[in-house]
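Notes from the 1:1 (GR / supervisor)

We went over the backlog. Supervisor wanted to see one worked example end to end before approving the batch request, so GR pasted a single chain during the call. The sequence is below; no edits were made to it. Supervisor asked that the structure be written out right there so they could see what the output format looks like.
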Amino acid sequence: MYAWTMLVVAHRGLHTSAPENSLAAVQAAVEAGCGRIEVDVRATADGHLVLMHDPTLERTTTGEGAILDLRAHELGAVRLGDGSPIPSLHEALEVCRDRAVLCIDVKQPDLGPAVVEAVDATGATAEVWSSHREVVAKAADRHHFAAWISHGIMPAGGVDELADEATQLGALAVSFFPADLMPSVTEACRRAALGVMSGTPNDRKTWAYLRRLGLRAVVTDRPIECADWLAHAPRPDGW
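Structure output shown during the call:
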């Protein structure tokens, strides 16, 4: 779990060559050899699961308004920056099936059952990530790899309390911002048999620091460069 190699996750697909969370970005990441690809998932008003980070359409699409206020057919005319439609979770899972692990960041607290059902229906290999405790618990209950995104969250009892809660949820990993990570945090998670991840550092200095801490995975906008750096960087002292 704390291997010095550290897993590299492509943040929102390979979005240097295609719009974030687009099917093209997922496909590009697969073709570039990225073993793990992160996407964000939200639901429309009628429960259709789509790839989208923001709760609204304005930043990344030609549309307007909140996704939760729109039905799936109303998104039909909405386009991403490359002119492609907003992809569904099912489409992304099919692209990754037998080729890469899709890391699904679930943005809404009530989507756990639907996301798990979508993963099971395709047979794709996926990890379910979320800042919502109920999503993590649901995925863990269905025996999927579940990670709790705890960015910026530290309870009064400190990291030991956080690790205890993550374990009770059934999480196998916890994700932190790089600024929140220090040896005491990774040691507490190690004692609780939790993997540690971090998003979203994009520079070699931070990658090196996180690798010295023994992280399970790093989520980055520069996955190809990060993977190449890891492949050629010397082992940290003492490893």
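Supervisor's comment: Residues 158-169 form the longest helix (12 residues).
Batch request approved.
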